[in-house]
Design goal:
Blueprint: E1 20-21, E2 39-40, H1 43-51, H2 59-70, H3 76-89, H4 93-107, H5 118-130, H6 147-163, H7 169-179, H8 192-214, H9 242-255, E3 260-261, H10 272-281, H11 285-299, E4 304-306, E5 309-311, H12 314-327, H13 338-356, H14 367-380, H15 388-417, E6 421-422, H16 446-463, H17 468-476, H18 482-497, H19 499-504, E7 506-509, E8 512-513, E9 520-527, E10 530-537, H20 540-543, H21 554-557, E11 561-563, E12 572-575, E13 581-582, E14 585-587, E15 590-594, H22 595-598, E16 605-610
Parallel strand pairs: 1-2, 3-6
Antiparallel strand pairs: 4-5, 7-9, 8-11, 9-10, 10-16, 11-15, 12-13, 12-16, 14-15
Length: 611
Amino acid sequence: MAISPWDSSPAVPRWPLFVVAEKILGEDEPLPHDWAVQGTTGYEFLNAVTGILVDQANCQEFEEFYAQFIGRKIVFNRLLIDCQKMILLISMASELNALSQQLDRISERNRHYRDFTLNSLTFAIREVIACLFIYRTYITGPDAVSLRDRMFIEGAVEEAKRQNPRTAESIFDFIRDTLLLRNIADFPAEDQPRLIEWTMKFQQLTGPVLAKAMEDTAFYIYNRLVSLNEVGGHPHCFGMSVVDFHSQNATRRERWPHSMLATSTHDTTRSEDVRARLNVLSEMAADWRAAVERWSQLNESKKTLVNGMLAPERNDEYLLYQTLVGAWPLEQVICHRLPEFRERILAYMQKATKEAKVHTSWINPNEEYDEAVREFVSRLLPARPDDAFLVDFLQFQQRVAYFGQFNSLAQTLLKLTCPGVPDLYQGSELWDFSLVDPDNRRPVDFARRQALLAELKEAISRAGQNVLPLLAALLRDWHDGRVKLFLIHRTLNFRRQYEELFSVGDYSPLTVRGAKQQHVCAFSRRFGDRAIVVAVPRLIARLGGGGAVPPLGLPMWHDTHVLLQPTAAPCRFRNIYTGEILDPVEHDGSLTLAMGSLLCHWPVALLERVS
């Protein structure tokens, strides 16, 4: 694909190389505008596109059932603070001690601060780090304190004060002023470089602490809906509105038009297709609740008594059921590949329970609990196709997988057309139901993908102008993944034709009206006389009333239509997947396109304006 990242819009600095930063942004944290990069590696897009496929209306029901099932309520931000403290007390205690001793030596030389003891400084530094919900700040001197850094440091200190009302505020104020270098003039000239050095060492510590606390601990404890437990994600936020999704895209278009767009990476906790399935659960809250309760009853006898309690505990059991729903292969594994799949799940659950550090850990393994988890998974996944749990589970899982395919197609098209540079992780050209590493590092069958692509190109060539029978066959045989491969192939070829449209073209959210308007995300992009319209369905299980029907045709969409800009001139559009020519109709003073026509034969739409 011909990308020219240095040809940015006038508002964006022109850097001589295409450089992106693997920067994980905290909630409400902007990427520093003066960095010599084109943007990030795309985790914020990954979480945004996941967010719009989550049904926010069911947040309370999910919250209540999760708390009821595991027997306690987990508040994510409180959990994250506790996890950061634990990391600082155990895994990174020496780094914290070195930091506090360095500050203690500096403060002892100053009459204003010498009364702070080493123990009190260690405690206060730990509390401030635990309340800092971004990975790090970037202060290098008293004249290099950005508004962004000041806001997050001050916020962390204020939260630490609230968490510790019995601790003197003066020590927290001292740490705040030292981190922001406000008090540097209070120190003699020979100590000022040491103060700056301390601030920078503090910043080097907060990143690994948060990574270990959130991605390697909290994400394996807070299991309300694990598709949200992703690198750069904020699991306490149950989804994202389409309005906020458009706002993020518009901001990226304005400030970082060549930032990468990712949906799977080497570091994601679950692949894009696993998350696409799990997002479906958010639409099926009542069915999910009933299923988990049935499965828990069926499987209670498969647990083991460890220290007077049944193991695995309910929170790990809840994670396991979601993992099985998301990662279950499309093949009939009960008779053929179940042992291989079982080994993958055994390895995943071992990692998940040890990373959670609740009942076992890598440093201090609880062999009895570890063995109980292994036995539970083995008993859940026997080779018998008549097993009561598997029969019930597969009926539910196959419904989720059916809707999950459409979620995956929708997020793939958005990644390929939103402002930014799309990234395809190895293997994701077809369905990929991998879990966290090392599961997502398994060999990819590139020969199979090359062969399928060659066959697909030949089929497209044979179909000529009449591609609809081929599309129907791809949708009918969706299990083989060619439906996703076709979407990627067709879209990337179109993108290569009109590179400037995607690299610097305008981005405009499109309003949707009608009975099913909340089930659509649509936008247009323009550059010169070129224009496209993109429309994808969302919340598809609820769209069709829970029935396994595709989001196609007028009966599904009724009066739902996409409004083009009021000033849009009369024009026609060509669907690049189906070849159909669509004529907008006037509705309330605007030209509109009916969703039933946009998605008549194919579940996502990319339209180009034609004369």
